[in-house]
Prior knowledge:
Elements: H1 2-25, H2 42-48, E1 61-67, E2 74-80, E3 93-97, H3 106-109, H4 113-122, E4 130-134, H5 152-156, H6 159-174, E5 184-189, H7 191-202, E6 209-213, E7 242-248, H8 257-267, E8 273-277, H9 283-294
Parallel strand pairs: 3-4, 3-5, 5-6, 6-7, 7-8
Antiparallel strand pairs: 1-2, 2-4
Amino acid sequence: MKKNIVKIVSLIFALILMSVVFFACNDDSGETPEPQPKPPTEEEIRNANMSAKDGVEYGEDIEIEYDSQITGAKKHAMVTLPVGYTEEKFYPVLYLLHGMACDHHAWLDDCNAKYIVQNLALEGKAEEMILVSVNSIVNETEIAPSFTDDSYAPMFDKTADEIFTSLMPYINEHYSTLTGKQNTAIAGFSMGGRETLLTAFAHQDAFDYVGAFSSAGFDKKVISFNNAIPDFKYDEGQSFKVLMLAIGNMDTMTGGVTPGIKIKFDDNGIEYQSKTYTGGHTYGVWKNALYDFAVQLFK
């Protein structure tokens, strides 16, 4: 009889214990803290800064027309002003060069340059700056010939002269710019990468920040298997604060050029940054390259 009583008491105790555990595990009183959301990853932050954000004010895009001393005709470019631009303040300038089959709209329309740079500036990760999107179709009509035409590459190669004889003087006269190499940057993709390097090394006293993204080759013909690289060297007493090369890891168009540029830089003792992104010869690669370039400018 005692054994039965002990068994019954033990069973009742076990049932009570199980009930306590069950109700404790299913307590919906709200006292248990809710799980905290994870902070965004670096990749998520980067992706969020690649395009326009709702409710955010951005600077003005202006298509300018100026007189070209190189072509003797009217020429165009895009100027992007920082948020809250005022003539009472002076701003550094980033010149952006486009690739083949593009024009001065490409950096804004296809690469979201304004949003990338100004989102970073609004977050305090980049300086406020004026963007100048250059048109490298340097001829009287601004209509490019076929890329198979022998005049195509020489037309692009007039970019440096166009900038220094005509465009840069216009920008400095009409906008509140900080001048001098410490306040001037240049970057470009594909054929714009080619022109960036040719322009910067020909005018080393004009730029402190240089970015060549997926640079095209340097042959007289645009489509060529000749990967010969110019003998890029610093003039005496000159250097760049930032010299950045970027390429997509699946670039089958110009992927062989950037390694050759690196070899030339190494041979000549020129320090540079090398960035590789996931992708081919694409705008996604150049957006990411601009992001990493912009955060280093004018510091």
